[in-house]
# Entry
Amino acid sequence: MTGAGQWLRLDWMLLVAAGWLVIGVAGVLALRRFTFVSRILFPAGGVLGLVLFGLALAAVFGNPQVAVLPVGLPNLPFHLRLDPLAAFFLMVIGAVSAGVSTFAAGYFRKAEGTPPGLLCLEYHVFLASMMLVVLADDAYAFMVMWETMALSSYFLVTANHRVAEVRNAGYLYLTMAHIGAIAILLSFGVLQANTGDYTFANMRAQQLSPFWGSIAFLLALLGFGAKAGLLPLHVWLPEAHPAAPSPVSALMSAVMLKTAIYGLLRVSFDLLHTRFWWWGGLLLALGLATALFGVVFAAVQVDMKRLLAYSSIENIGLMAAGIGLALIFSAYGMKALAALALTATLYHVASHAVFKSLLFLSTGCVLHATAERSLGKLGGLIRYMPWVAWVTLVGVLTSAGLPPLGGFVSEWLLLQSFLFTPSLPDPLLNMLIPMVAALIALVAALAGYTMVKFFGVIFLGQPREEKLAQAHDAGSWERVGMLWLVLGCVGLGLLPVQFIQLIDPVTQQLLAAGLGQTVAASGWLLAPISVERASYGPVIFLLGVAASCALAYLMVRWFYHGRLRRSPAWDCGYAWQTARMQDTAEGFGQPIRQIFEPFFVMRRELPTPFDARPRYRVVVEDHFWGWLFLPLAALATRIARLVGLLQQGRISIYLLYSFVTLIAMLVVVRL
# Structure
């Protein structure tokens, strides 16, 4: 405790968590009162998210604050801590939840699986648990909140539990979540160093040997990597996200995945004092493999929510690569460059949170308006859903990393980090890491390709189904929620200097270095190291684009006014253009399938000359199912059958087991 005013901020944050829980309980009490739940409770949750955003924004610049809650088991209270790292992620949780909750007030419909009141409880417990995961300052509180987050999100994923595919996706997600939780718990067991004290304060005080420090890091990487979707533990993510309602998908992709990034940062830079370059090298390689894998699979998807799910895998890979590079720089004592890499990572955390939640909410609008998730049955929706199309375009441009939006700034900073690697003292790293920068550029290019496909196939061209003419635009609640996220995309793009100064306390906490003073010295021009090396002016770029568009408009009006002749577009020799003649989602992804064919397991359904209705279909699957998870599932089934032989259903057999066990125990005691 460092003062009443600072305690007050932490107390208010706990009141926000309590408020979310109260809203959830109120939802259960009004189990089937749809209007009350959707129009009152969900907007109230959005207001609390906005309050959390404001409190966290102020807490980033404050001193660490601690609290002990007398809950839990005897002699095991919950220890909480609010420091700049926690405040930054709470800010992301609050900002995204404010937009998603407001959108959800207009999104949910009656008779969609789970009763609305129960869905309200699961949703707000999910929000409160994510918040308390970030605030937890001991292993007990962290794991309780981590499991609460996993269980509440499982019930949200299986909201439409009457569908078998949804149930299977939920089981897979829960299995992977518990595998990760076991690894995290083991990591905390190593970090407490046989002291019996599982508070993070005690873990910070321990000086682990290189061996045990590496074991703790690898366990944390396994546990948090399973939640984040790093290879090869990513398989749950493209199954769970399409199964969940769109607001839930938005929260899971934009926020829940970031709790894993938070945990990895907390362990790597806060609880562990000794760092080795190979930790960063491993994480860098794993992150790049995940990013390339995710973007390649996203490019060939024909389901719009699966496309966004694989895109999330790609972005998580970029964040992991940024953390890995920061670890490498930190291991060699290059604090300024480590701060640059970590700043790029945290910037991408915030940018991905807003644009990916915006894109998932856009797919929710399309899904409700058309009842279609398949890209092959959409098209031309900009005519019927213009508002959704234009806000989606902002999210698409941000995801593609185009200036002057937030996605460009984070990826540009990450590339700047890689360009400074020749100053590393290791010749091998100096040779390999520039190649990594080329891979990141490839990932960024493929991400742009994927977003062109996503927006073009859904909104441009002609409708591929007659029923699309009945599509309706987003409602008022949905528009407000999406507009809030659009402001986030634009704000992160136009105010990078101010946002980096917001990140500065976090890098100062973890690395004792930051970019705040450097970028502040250049005013509105973003120069992460120096103006001589690289700089970027987002406002200048925006003004240049606006001036170019205005000049083009004026030139057309002045020089060609009255000399225009309208005629039909060139039809390539086909007089009757139909939707069947325009590029499909499968055709758009065909070049990627051919170039990266070793990445995929492809099954083709080919037509024959005798088919009344010929059909060509390609199913793209993941090698990791066959390489890793199917053999593990078969092994688990075999072991279960062997164990099942022990249960014969006869009392004499069970008495024999007890007798043999007793004899074995006596022999052991005798020895």
Q: What stands out?
A: The beta strands are 65-73, 76-82, 600-605, 617-622.
